[in-house]
Design brief:
Layout lengths: L4 E5 L4 E8 L2 E7 L8 H24 L7 E5 L4 E5 L4 E2 H4 L5 H20 L2 E2 L8 E4 L2 E4 L6 E2 L3 H18 L4 H15 L3 H20 L1
Helix pairs in contact: 3-5, 4-6
Length: 212
């Protein structure tokens, strides 16, 4: 058995690389036990969240959003085995690619976000750390906080996360990138204006709380 390589630790799961899962590279997302929870409840929560995430990834792919292929879902072990996506996160390359490529990627991210929202998926952690540049594609990863929701509030939260991430991490390009993101978003989501208006409202709420 090949040795697993630890990649990262999130709030609720560890991400591991298996270099030889059935002869291919694979990512294993494993939700570890939370000792502060009652054991029976902890098992139920980890099981349900594993099933939910796998289901949402499947729905996203059906909607035309590039996501990792799922090879195996183990609800009882609270883990998902999925495709290893070659490439780098957009967060890591945004400062070194051309302005034309930045604009092209963000328009496409906007389009794919519109497809997600159009089928009732809110990503929950929509940042450049969770989008991988893979050749000509942008691949959305980490749906651990995602939910099935048609609510404009959830859509607005997604958009606000992206906007705040741009300000905090890629502030030199915030205006130009969010402009092309919005253009792409409007191409694929017929309720885009409503979601963008809610994003602005959420942003105002946040500034008000910060002043308080």
């Amino acid at each position: 058995m090949a040795k697993l390589t630890f990649i990262s630790k999130g709030a609720e799961a560890d991400i591991l690389l298996d270099p030889n899962w059935n002869g291919i590279k694979a990512i294993i997302k494993r939700r570890g036990e939370k000792r502060y929870r009652v054991t029976k409840l902890d098992i139920a929560i980890r099981r349900s969240r594993t099933i939910r995430e796998a289901s949402i990834i499947h729905h996203a792919k059906e909607a035309g959003v590039p996501t990792p292929l799922i090879y195996r879902v183990d609800p009882d072990g609270a883990q998902i085995v999925m495709e290893y996506i070659e490439g780098e996160t957009l967060r890591d390359i945004l400062d070194i690619i051309s302005p034309e490529d930045r604009a092209r990627y963000f328009r496409e991210i906007g389009r794919k976000t519109g497809l997600l929202h159009g089928v009732g998926i809110a990503h929950g952690d929509l940042t450049t750390s969770n989008i991988i540049h893979n050749g000509a594609r942008v691949v959305f990863i980490d749906f651990g906080l995602a939910e099935m929701s048609d609510e404009v509030e959830s859509q607005g939260v997604d958009l606000n996360l992206m906007y705040r991430m741009l300000i905090s991490t890629h502030y030199n390009y915030t205006k130009e990138l969010f402009t092309v993101f919005k253009a792409g978003y409007k191409e694929t989501f017929d309720k885009a204006e409503e979601a963008l208006s809610r994003m602005e409202e959420i942003s105002r709420r946040g500034r008000y709380i910060e002043r308080e």
